Amino acid sequence: MTEQKDTICAISTPPGVGGIAVIRVSGDDAIAITDTLWRGKRLADAASHSVHYGSIVDAQGDVVDDCVAAVFRAPKSFTGENVVELSVHGSVYVQKAVVGLLVEAGARLAEHGEFTRRAFAAGKMDLAQAEGVADLIASRSRAAHDIAIKQMKGGFSRRLAAMHDNLLELASLLELELDFSEEDVEFASRQKLHAQAVELRDEIHRLAASFDSGNAIKEGIPVAIIGPTNVGKSSLLNALVGDDRAIVSDIHGTTRDLIEDTVNIGDFTFRFIDTAGIRNTDDRIEQLGIDRSRQAIGRATILLHVIDAANPQKADWLDSIADNQHLVAVINKTDVASSQQAADMIPAGTTTVEVSAKTSAGIDTLRDTLTGIAQSLLTDPGDIIVTNARHRQALLNALLPIERVITGLTSNLSGDFIAQDLREVLHHLGSITGTVTTTEILTTIFSRFCIGK
Predict the structure, then answer these.
(1) Can you tell me the distance from the alpha carbon of 148 to that of 168, in angstroms, rounded to the nearest whole number?
(2) What are the tens digits of pLDDT across the range 374-419?
(3) Contact status, residue 150 vs residue 156, Cβ threshold 8 Å
(4) Which of 152, 308, 336, 343 could form a disulfide with 132 if both were Cys (CB 3.0 to 4.6 A apart)?
């Protein structure tokens, strides 16, 4: 990614036709360059955070479009530089023409994420906050939006800063211990230092462990619809998503591959996976689908075990459910049969919902059950949840040296060795916010942004 501080421009709104499109210009010469194609009040004379109506004209003086220009002067802008945002009509031609004129006047096309990278370079936000911006843009549910907003506003960064300060305190006390090792002075007992290190270790572990739930909320909570053939799994999928997404047939083995669909229910996005019916079969193609069904069981956060009220069957896969998975027994076809026989086969304590996928009876109750489970993934809604795989890896990398710190404090290891491990913990946590980073890391992160952001 280019590091020079020239003036950049890009369309910031989604591609295609719309009522309005926003073209962003940022850099020392942003206002001067825009003025060369602007007809209206001179933007060079405009106050910061002011909005002006005028026209964009080409080299011949012909009007390309009427538009509104918003002026933001450095350092009080998103990037910390002079910024002009042009709101033009959403014609594809107009958008391209205005960008072309800006480039002819001396700006260059921005690279992916370059506006946000400049904001990071100017100290407007740290790296975790910048990634929160990308997550906010990509959020598809209120829950994912709320987590992204908290990260963008610095919630995660403040938690990391507090941990950083505690680590520095530990390191400074150990340094004092080394400096005055020959004198009878105790600045802090090893027991107290040990307790602080354990508290930090537990916090790092909690944050890393929150990734599974956070990533599920961000990407869509995976829900596998599991059961034997012909129990109404595909009908249930269609009822949940409100569309004929899956083929419904009385023929056993109709669904031979995984069918996925994403839908928002309440504040959450769910990724429903309709699986092939699990049964013994000699059909090689169907068996491949069944194998994939068993793999889907392992990947799902929520398992909907569909049971035919008229013909309940035992499930041999129930023993493979992990502790962090949520099982819901869904007794289907209650419009034609009693649920009692099926209910007797469900393990005690299992959440159970009775439905008729055909008539949609009980579907709202099932949706409420799903959102209730999703809400439980948030644990404490006010707490920090990690959704970024890079952050999780950095936290996991920090766990090993903090464990060595704890062991060293317990075994009265020399303070200089412990301090070295503390510096390693600080390094890994610093990589999350960008206090420790490289050009390669920055390029990778910002390349995932859209060009206009």
Answers:
(1) 28
(2) 998 886 656 889 999 999 999 999 999 999 999 998 998 877 888 8
(3) yes
(4) 152
Residues in the chain: 453
Same domain, 371 and 429: no
Tens of pLDDT, residue by residue over 163-185, are 988 888 888 877 776 655 555 55
SS3 168: helix
| The residue to which tokens 């096309």 are assigned | 109
The alpha carbon dihedral of 372, 376, 377, 383 has a sign of positive
| Residue 323 lies inside a defined structural domain of this protein | yes
169 and 186 housed in the same domain: yes
Burial state string for 223-261 with b = 16 or more CB within 10 A and e = fewer than 16:
bbbbbbbbbbbbbbbbbbbeeebbebeeeebbbbebbeb
21, 76: one domain: yes
User: pTM to 2 decimals?
Assistant: 0.76
Name the token pair of 240.
Answer: 């949940």
Span 272-321, pLDDT tens digits: 988 765 555 555 665 576 667 667 788 889 999 999 988 888 777 677 78
The tally of CA atoms less than 13 A away on the side-chain side of residue 351 is: 15
Three-class SS state of 41? coil
422: left (phi over 0), alpha (psi -120 to 50) or beta: alpha
Give the CATH number, domain containing residue 78.
3.30.1360.120
What is the layout of strands, in order, in the sheet containing 38-39? 38-39, 50-57, 63-72, 83-90, 18-26, 8-11, 108-109
Is residue 381 reached through a cis peptide bond, with omega within 30 degrees of 0 on the bond before it? no
Which domain, by its residues, includes 153?
132-210+386-434
CA distance 57 to 49: 23
Task: Give the DSSP letter of residue 348.
Answer: T
Residues 373, 232 within the same domain: yes
Structure tokens at 403: 């464990």
**What's the CATH number where 185 sits?**
1.20.120.430
Cβ(217)–Cβ(210) below 8 Å: no
By DSSP bridging, strand 8-11 and strand 18-26 are antiparallel
Q: Are residues 204 and 228 in the same domain?
A: no
* Domain-embedded: residue 447: no
Is position 450 within any domain? no
β partners of residue 88 = 21
Separation CA 156–CA 313 (nearest Å): 47
Is 194 in the same domain as 159? yes
314 and 359 within one domain: yes
What single string gives the DSSP state of each residue in 139-158?
--SHHHHHHHHHHHTTHHHH
Same domain, 399 and 261: no
Residue 317, domain member (yes or no): yes
- Only one residue has tokens 């086969």, namely 345
